[in-house]
């Protein structure tokens, strides 16, 4: 192909020439598509379509989504525990069809929570438009309300492995209900919660914090690394968070700790919430039931190349190497919670 000659040709002629190249010629160079979105074809879903189109997602409709009970404990946890749990299933889930070709992300627009897909909400997508990068350090709260899971507290050091950014990380242990509520009302980029969630809410030493009762949450994104944290995660999104990572069903403490360390490394490397879950599920803990709610396309920071690595050790060290010194004045576009650009999604998520 004579590119020099094509350069001066009209756009229509150039396009015709490019389209004349056989698919087999370029097949090996075509990247995985960034996102497939299944949409429940209702009036309520229409408001999400402009955001889905902006992400250049493959859109599929599900004429009759059939919410149904799902096995409470996935096989990866059953195998670890050596027995089935007897707890009843209280939530019905939608199981979207597997994508028919390679895409990195899978999302769902509809009322019922999905299995193995990002539950998008229109409100969180709209709020994401109001997020502007700033020069302040990335503010992260690590909350551990279970001393038996204190090993996961080293995530504070994992987040700082990205030496392109400044981080302001605060550690909190045994927060009371009132203290946790106040923390969520403060402006922050990310919450990493380590502990337990039950039917009454997030477990605190003096009771439960039910996020579905909160009116105003100013933590932009979160990881609720606790059993059955879907409802509490949705409560955070509905009260103001943009998106987060939650669990479906029961998670053994040791597996939750392992996953929490991996999530910290992936997010610090520049992965989005959604791709972090994808990497964990496909490269670390097969069959794990973590998922994203709200805007799963959010990232905590950017990688140096714009192409975050998926290289994740299955057995992370207890303590990571000491991070290098942070730049004194990070670029405005590199700090805080930001949306990955469309070009990055298409060309360089991997």
Write up this protein.
It contains 12 helices and 17 strands. The strands form 5 sheets. A 6-stranded mixed sheet has the order 8-7-9-13-14-15, with helices on both faces. Strands 2-1-5-6 form a 4-stranded parallel sheet. It is globular. The protein has 2 domains: 1-26, no CATH class; 121-348, Rossmann fold (3-Layer(aba) Sandwich). Helices cover 27% and strands 21% of the residues. A hairpin with a 2-residue loop joins strand 11 (201-204) and strand 12 (207-209). It starts with a helix and ends with a helix. Helix 10 (253-268) packs across helix 11 (273-284). It has helices spanning 3-7, 11-19, 23-26, 49-54, 75-81, 122-128, 155-158, 177-185, 230-239, 253-268, 273-284, 342-348, and strands at 33-39, 58-61, 68-69, 92-93, 103-109, 118-119, 138-144, 167-173, 188-194, 197-198, 201-204, 207-209, 219-225, 243-247, 290-294, 298-299, 338-339. Residues 74-86 and 312-350 have low confidence and may be disordered. By secondary structure, the protein is of the alpha/beta class.
Keywords:
alpha/beta, 2 domains, 21% strand, single chain, 27% helix, 350 residues, disordered C terminus, CHAT domain-containing protein
Sketch the topology as an H/E string, one letter per element.
HHHEHEEHEEEHEHEHEEEEEHEHHEEEH
Q: Count structural domains.
A: 2
Number of helices: 12
Number of strands: 17
The major beta sheet can be summarized as: 6 strands, mixed
Question: Mean pLDDT, rounded to whole units?
Answer: 79
- CATH architecture field of the largest domain: 3-Layer(aba) Sandwich
Q: What distance lies between the first and last C-alpha atoms, to the nearest angstrom?
A: 29 Å
Low-confidence stretches: 74-86, 312-350
Kindly provide the name of the CATH class of the largest domain: Alpha Beta
Helicity level: 25-40%
The CATH topology of the largest domain is: Rossmann fold
Region (Disordered): 303-335
Protein name: CHAT domain-containing protein
Biased composition (Low complexity): 308-317
């Amino acid at each position: 192909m004579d590119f020099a000659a094509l350069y001066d040709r009209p756009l229509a002629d150039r396009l015709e020439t490019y389209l004349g190249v056989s698919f087999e010629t370029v097949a090996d160079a075509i990247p995985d598509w960034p996102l497939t979105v299944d949409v429940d074809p209702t009036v309520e879903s229409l408001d999400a379509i402009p955001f889905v189109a902006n992400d250049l997602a493959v859109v599929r409709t599900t004429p009759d989504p059939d919410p149904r009970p799902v096995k409470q404990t996935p096989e990866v946890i059953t195998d670890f525990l050596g027995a089935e749990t007897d707890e009843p299933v209280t939530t019905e889930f939608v199981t979207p069809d597997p994508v028919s070709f390679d895409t990195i992300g899978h999302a769902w627009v509809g009322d019922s929570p999905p299995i193995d897909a990002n539950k998008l909400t229109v409100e969180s997508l709209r709020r994401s438009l109001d997020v502007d990068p700033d020069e302040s350090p990335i503010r992260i709260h690590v909350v551990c309300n279970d001393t038996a899971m204190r090993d996961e507290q080293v995530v504070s050091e994992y987040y700082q492995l990205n030496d392109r950014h400044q981080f302001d990380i605060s550690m909190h242990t045994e927060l009371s209900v009132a203290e946790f509520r106040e923390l969520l009302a403060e402006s922050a980029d990310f919450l990493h919660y380590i502990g337990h969630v039950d039917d009454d809410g997030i477990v605190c030493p003096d009771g439960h914090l039910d996020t579905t009762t909160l009116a105003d949450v100013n933590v932009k994104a979160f990881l609720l690394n606790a059993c059955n944290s879907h409802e509490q995660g949705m409560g955070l999104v509905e009260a103001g968070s943009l998106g987060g990572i939650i669990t479906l069903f029961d998670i053994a403490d040791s597996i939750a700790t392992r996953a929490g360390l991996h999530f910290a490394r992936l997010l610090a490397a520049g992965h989005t919430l959604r791709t972090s879950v994808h990497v964990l599920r496909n490269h670390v803990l097969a069959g794990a039931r973590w998922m994203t709610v709200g805007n799963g396309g959010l990232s905590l920071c950017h990688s140096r190349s714009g192409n975050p690595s998926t290289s994740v050790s299955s057995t992370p060290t207890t303590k990571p190497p000491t991070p290098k010194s942070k730049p004194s004045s990070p670029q405005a576009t590199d700090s805080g919670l930001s949306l990955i650009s469309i070009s990055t999604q298409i060309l360089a998520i991997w």
